[in-house]
Model the fold of this input.
Amino acid sequence: MKKRLFALYLLLVCFGAHIPSVASAQDQASSKNQSLALTGAKIYPKPTAKPIINGVVLIKDGRIVAVGDSRKIKIPNSSKVLDCRGLTLTAAFWNSHVHFTEQKWQNAASLPAAQLAGQMQEMLTRYGFAHVLDTGSFTDNTLALRQRIEKENIAGPSIRLAAGSFVSLDGTPFYLEPLKLPELATPAEATKIISGLLASGVDGIKIFAASPKRGKPPVVMPLDIAKAVVSVAHARGKFVVAHPTNNAGIEVVLGAGVDILAHTTPDGGQAWSEDLIKRLKVARTALIPTLRLWRFELERNKVSAAGVEKFLEVALQQLRAYSQAGGEILFGTDVGYMSIYSTADEYELMAKAGMSFQQILASLTTAPAARFGVAKQTGKIAVGMDADIVVLTADPAVDIKALANVKYTFRKGKIIYALK
Ligand SMILES: [Zn+2]
Done:
């Protein structure tokens, strides 16, 4: 099954083969007990705070120990200094929708460490991601990746995994055929299978609430099965992510209490009504927009430019409506399934959907940190927080695409990416 999955993704996904050098990404920013001062940057401490124009962040033992105006922060004589004048600094980013399904991630347990760090850099850390949510890859392989990053100190992000990609009977999406995703036939079967999977160390469960089929209506997961999945996951403090496909899928999400929508739903061609938005908001459902993905999918299926824009307009309306209503947005791109690694277009599309720089920054930092239960450790530039930091070459408040132009990515005070 796993070999077949990989073979299929080979067919589905095209990917680059070059592996960048990783020497600097593995350098330690500062040695034990020595502090590191990032000086002179414009600092956005959190989305709702005013920027510090000429700021200092002092890091020690992986944590932020001081932050503020450079005239007020005393830098110890023994401290290393990294000149960040002309740069912009925020908390490090989260990508809440990624996959490690490209062939190059196969055999994660035995890949050379430098190759792994290089691949992480190419796909994730060079775009500022110190944290990612894998929304369905090969469970054992992703767990091996995570273990190697943490145990061997490989330069990479923290990885959370929503495993399974479960469907109901005959629910494999057409674009994955001839592969068959694991099916849940009854609530009792769902309870048994999900319990077993959650015991293996995964963080959450992924389901297809509705699955697109070619030439016929989507297959919608029966509500009692989705409810069984959510009930088992929540009982163990875990979350459920759903691929919704259309409004029928969103009804399953709402009816079952699924936590996170993995995508907007332009497939159905329907705008999200005020009533639907209200219900999603009340349910505290989080939304991952994946706007660039729609253009990617349609263009490779040779849909006309006008057709692409019409489809995308539906997704933009959905994000606009939910964001304006104060709904929770988590930044995510489906990178790894989508072969475009750059995040610049996604930021531009989110801005086109009416999201401000502050709202987009929240979707990258404070919102996912809170959603995944680590808001006290990461997501803000504040004393006591992990030194999870992104340094950008330009100010994203001026041009939103600057969020993709990363000079340094730090995770717990260690540089996991440095622009050469
Ligand atoms: Zn995905």
The pocket of zinc ion is lined by residues 97, 99, 135, 334, 337 (CB under 6 Å). Confidence is low (pLDDT under 50) at residues 1-28.
